[in-house]
């Protein structure tokens, strides 16, 4: 069984997350780090064994579009002069959105002090969407294993810490954090080494080898629906418009995944979907199967 390690800074964050872990498809450990990057770094040096690592808790928003209670799933974690990509972020953000949460992906910056005012605006101009004080050192400890950072916004540029709205916003964020745990366990259950095959629309050969076929394209496209029907003769097949629409439950146990698309779909969407799958574990490709669109679909 997959071992998921969830790290939080504070006891109240750990208690909120634990509320959602009653029925987990993976083995879960919760570890408190204490507040700040130095404490997080000390804990990161002595973490127990794990297969997947999730860091969660509260964060401060740097941009107006992130309100109290919104969830930021880090597509990258910035700490010092290092940037760690989290390719599976769209998959996890989509899972949280389907659970009814306001979730989006963005850049998470780990800092060593509370950020407000002009400094916050400066960091936002440099591309950061939210700040925390623990994720960076912990994410480094993942050492190539799947890692996710999910932060619930407490303070915002319009309502900084120690403002009259702090208590209300903290209660809102805690309620949201209670609902994050199940999505984290589904994310961890979907992590595994897998083979990803990029197949042309004539995909019978690839589909016969698949545990799951993902057809990337508009849900209203007759061509895309035909591809799903064709693939279903060989394996479970799903039509999705973007990576955030891929449900993590589909990926659990799917060790060979075929990606394909019709003529109306940009190949870059297939690239994006493959990259998201790489965030769930090592991906092997098969060069004997190629992805080619009809000539009239070439850019």
UniProtKB/TrEMBL annotation:
Its cofactor is [4Fe-4S] cluster. The keyword Iron-sulfur applies. Residues 27-162 form the Nucleoside phosphorylase domain. Keywords: 4Fe-4S, Iron, Iron-sulfur, Metal-binding. InterPro entries: LytB/IspH, Nucleoside_phosphorylase_d, Nucleoside_phosphorylase_sf. The keyword Cytoplasm does not apply. This is Nucleoside phosphorylase domain-containing protein.
């Amino acid at each position: 069984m997959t071992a998921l390690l969830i790290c939080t800074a504070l006891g109240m964050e750990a208690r909120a997350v634990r509320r959602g872990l009653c029925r987990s498809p993976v083995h879960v450990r919760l570890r408190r780090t204490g507040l700040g990057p130095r404490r997080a770094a000390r804990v990161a040096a002595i973490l127990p064994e794990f297969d997947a690592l999730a860091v969660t808790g509260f964060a401060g928003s740097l941009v107006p579009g992130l309100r109290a209670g919104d969830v930021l799933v880090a597509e990258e974690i910035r700490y010092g002069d290092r940037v760690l990509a989290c390719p599976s972020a769209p998959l996890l953000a989509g899972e949280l959105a389907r659970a009814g949460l306001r979730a989006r992906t963005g850049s998470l910056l780990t800092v060593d002090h509370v950020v407000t005012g002009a400094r916050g605006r400066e960091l936002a101009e440099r591309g950061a969407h939210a700040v925390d004080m623990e994720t960076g050192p912990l994410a480094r400890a993942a050492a190539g294993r799947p890692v996710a950072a999910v932060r619930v916004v407490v303070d915002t540029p319009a309502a900084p810490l120690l403002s009259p709205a702090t208590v209300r916003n903290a209660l809102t964020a805690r309620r949201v954090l209670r609902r994050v745990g199940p999505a984290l366990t589904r994310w961890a259950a979907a992590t595994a080494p897998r083979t990803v095959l990029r197949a042309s629309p004539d995909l019978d050969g690839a589909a016969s080898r698949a545990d799951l076929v993902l057809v990337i394209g508009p849900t209203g496209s007759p061509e895309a629906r035909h591809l799903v029907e064709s693939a279903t003769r060989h394996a479970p097949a799903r039509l999705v418009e973007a990576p955030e629409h891929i449900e993590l439950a589909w990926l659990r146990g799917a060790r060979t995944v075929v990606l394909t698309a019709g003529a109306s779909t940009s190949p870059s969407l297939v690239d994006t979907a493959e990259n998201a799958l790489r965030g769930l574990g090592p991906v092997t490709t098969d060069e004997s199967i190629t992805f080619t669109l009809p000539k009239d679909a070439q850019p």
